Amino acid sequence: MTSIRRCFSFTFYETNGEQGAIETITTASAMQAQAQTLRNQGKRIVLVPTMGFLHEGHLSLMRLGLAHADALVVSIFVNPTQFGPGEDLEAYPRDFDRDLALCRDEGAAVVFAPQPEEIYPAGFQTHVDLESLPKHLCGKSRPVHFRGVATVVTKLFNIVSPHMAVFGEKDFQQLTVIRRMVRDLNLPVGILGGPTFREADGLAMSSRNAYLTPAQRPAALSLIQSLHLAREMAANGETDARRIVEAATGMINAHPEARIDYVAVCNPQTLEDLTRLDGPARMFLAVRVGRARLIDNMAIN
Amino acid sequence: MTSIRRCFSFTFYETNGEQGAIETITTASAMQAQAQTLRNQGKRIVLVPTMGFLHEGHLSLMRLGLAHADALVVSIFVNPTQFGPGEDLEAYPRDFDRDLALCRDEGAAVVFAPQPEEIYPAGFQTHVDLESLPKHLCGKSRPVHFRGVATVVTKLFNIVSPHMAVFGEKDFQQLTVIRRMVRDLNLPVGILGGPTFREADGLAMSSRNAYLTPAQRPAALSLIQSLHLAREMAANGETDARRIVEAATGMINAHPEARIDYVAVCNPQTLEDLTRLDGPARMFLAVRVGRARLIDNMAIN
Predict the structure, then answer these.
(1) Closest C-alpha to B135, from B127, B146, B119
(2) Which of A128, A150, A185 sits opposite B158 (nearest CB)?
(3) Which residue in chain A is spatially nearest to B124 when comparing CA positions?
């Protein structure tokens, strides 16, 4: 893990003949002060929260954010409270110097990269939680995950004070949880969902794809293939959600390396399982392939 | 209950030769817009959250707030989620017109008075909760109370966007919960605690004092008397918290109308019970007298 020794630093760079500076901030108080300065200058702040080890998916969210921003802030924080016991917190891939260079190249004004003890000091005991949305899909096997996400996102919003924040649709349940939380807590932040960015073969971009071996790739690709199958079945008039789930399940289970966590067709607002496709429907998948737990989702109706 | 039909209104008044206007706002979006206008004008917003039926205790908090404010906002909202089943939500005293006049007389710029369905619309499911502070004192007999308080205060802060908010020390556990929550969630709001305002005979001001009959007054006064006794014992060198609790308990139990919920001597930061007085100590009381559940507290060391 890259340690961050500086409270903040300036890195000058040259892009397209323009010279800019990216600032790295590691304390909440310095970030709040910087956000206040930007707001006092009338600048529109857009936040892209990440856990680092940035890939093209993150960069696509940054580009989306930059189109709405005077000042793009990227947070890089591997949030311990959204990992359960036995999950991959310690193994989660990190490369801060590369991340910083990518943020600079994309035109971010600030990288906010705190250490865990800055976000969760001694005596910390406050949590933001939702009643029903976290009980579905990933929440079933990751019971504390969305409480950790909702809490850290609330904190990031209060620290960075963004006008808008961007989240990827790849983590669609997370996006749904955050939209609901923002509405419920009257958080003054607009939420923008960015489409899932895929590798050339269709695999949804994820930092956890780094865990995959070449031999595991076909099993990993069964996710996008089964989403396409589901969408095709729905387009061909299939309205029985159970039959669609069965077909997708069969396609994934054809790969012995794949271990399904869930295959579900849900209402995209409530995330409740659908039995019939008579309105908006989205398929959600979580599948373990080797050391990687892969998720993907797609509107199928 | 007074129903509020208008989205907002202006009431002109004359005080000390000056003419001002108080604005009543009932929707979150109108309040957020007004707060943004005030902030854009460089005005310092101070919020005094109340459940209405205002008394001198509230007015003292408003005066404290006004000393730090360019624009004083008073919220009046009987928050249903901080009442448990069987508590006095329906019976809670209300008098909106009188409250509005008092706020106007005190120099408030805005009264924010939403209806419950504005604060908790259909589908609402997000809560702010703390791990340990709500488990002590009032939290033992009111298990959902502080979750309701923390959630509504977070919402009020996001709606009113105050630079500072004032809470009374009479609800010391609430003040402690809010200070911790503000720190934990990085809420950009300063918290000011206002001293307990007392009636001439020493009874702590509370909207619930309206439930007391004259015959119940001596029992109600046993709270402040036992706090004074505790402070005197500590001043005279008593360091055994259990003996202080016993003496206070005896003094309250001398009144057959008084039913003790708790008598405790606690660390004022963690609210954990103390056995010995070897640092800051505060006594906390909750006693039912007739229909009223009275609370009071005092530093005794």
Answers:
(1) B146
(2) A185
(3) A184
